[in-house]
Design goal:
This protein is about 20% helix and about 10% strand. It has helices at about 110-125, 185-200, 235, 245-250, 250-260, 270-275; strands spanning about 20, 40, 95-100, 135, 140-145, 165-170, 205-210, 225-230, 230. The protein has a five-stranded mixed sheet with strand order 5-4-6-3-9. A two-stranded antiparallel sheet has the order 1-2. It has a two-stranded antiparallel ribbon with strand order 7-8. Residues about 1-55 and about 265-285 have low confidence and may be disordered.
Length: about 290
């Protein structure tokens, strides 16, 4: 059976501010002092959504929810994070990242990798939690990243200036020029993006207007800019992320995500495979 929808933890609130930062580089080169970033207000879910321009709005589009390995399943230590999740008024765009970590991992070891990333981004970078909302490994397994409910518009710390109203999906690995992007990873990213964007009626192949909340992004604070509904980290911030190879695959990911939204079947093509995961990912090739 598919994994159940995740509920927000007790005591969750949208009233506090969250750091708007953009993780870059492997853990070994991260420095705690780099976490000194401006704090930005987070929109309350009950208030008008402030960080979007005139984006096309539509009724929710049917897209199956792919199976997602929960934080409990990858054994996140919940005592390390900020106990308060932060929410926007909805998700209107997805930013794709890579973790800039080695590619030669065994998929069965990914939970340990996530715990290392979690420690780096909470303790060393002081971001309060994982910056990414979701992470995807090369075997196509999707993991819940930042806490607060996979089905809710949780504000992450993944794209400086454009964290509000967006979801950050990180491909585990490094995807510089010439690096193959595993088909399973690509398909899982598309399935996840189709589901998250479909909740708000957003076409994965469409355009949205977002408003920058931080002048250290590619746009001045308060400036409105048009983005693809599925964009790369580099579109909003001066970085090479998600790597040349993965960035080049974004058009194909948009097309696949759009096709998945159009399907009438209530089951994801990835659901049967992912549902077999009892609490840890399957090994590559299985």
């Amino acid at each position: 059976m598919a994994l159940p929808l995740l509920a927000a933890p007790a005591g969750v609130t949208a009233a506090r501010a969250v750091r708007d930062t953009a993780p870059e580089g492997p853990l070994s080169v991260w420095r705690p002092e780099a976490a000194t970033q401006p704090v930005e207000p987070v929109a309350d879910a009950a208030s008008p959504f402030p960080a979007l321009g005139a984006a096309s709005m539509a009724l929710p589009r049917v897209a199956p929810r792919p199976a997602i390995v929960s934080r409990a399943q990858w054994r996140a230590d919940e005592t390390k994070r900020d106990p308060h999740a932060h929410y926007a008024g909805g998700v209107r765009a997805v930013f794709i990242h890579h973790t800039d970590t080695p590619n030669g991992y065994d998929c069965a070891d990914v939970p340990r990798t996530l715990r290392n990333l979690y420690t780096g981004q909470t303790r060393d970078m002081s971001w309060g939690d994982l910056g990414y909302n979701f992470l995807v490994d090369k075997c196509g397994t999707i993991y819940e990243g930042r806490a607060g409910g996979a089905d809710r518009p949780v504000v992450g710390s993944h794209t400086l200036g454009f964290n509000q109203g967006t979801t950050g999906i990180a491909a585990i690995g490094t995807f510089g020029p010439g690096t193959p992007v595993p088909a399973a990873m690509e398909h899982a990213i598309a399935a996840l993006a189709a589901w998250k964007l479909g909740l708000g009626g957003v076409d994965p192949a469409g355009k949205v207007r977002l408003t920058s909340t931080n002048g250290k992004s590619r746009y001045a604070k308060g400036a409105s800019a048009e983005f693809d509904a599925i964009s790369g980290h580099r579109d909003g911030f001066a970085t090479n992320c998600p790597g040349e190879a993965l960035f080049a695959r974004l058009p194909a990911i948009r097309t696949l995500a759009t096709n998945l939204q159009s399907r009438s079947s209530p089951r994801s093509p990835f659901g049967a495979r992912f549902a077999a995961i009892p609490g840890s990912p399957r090994r590559g090739g299985e």
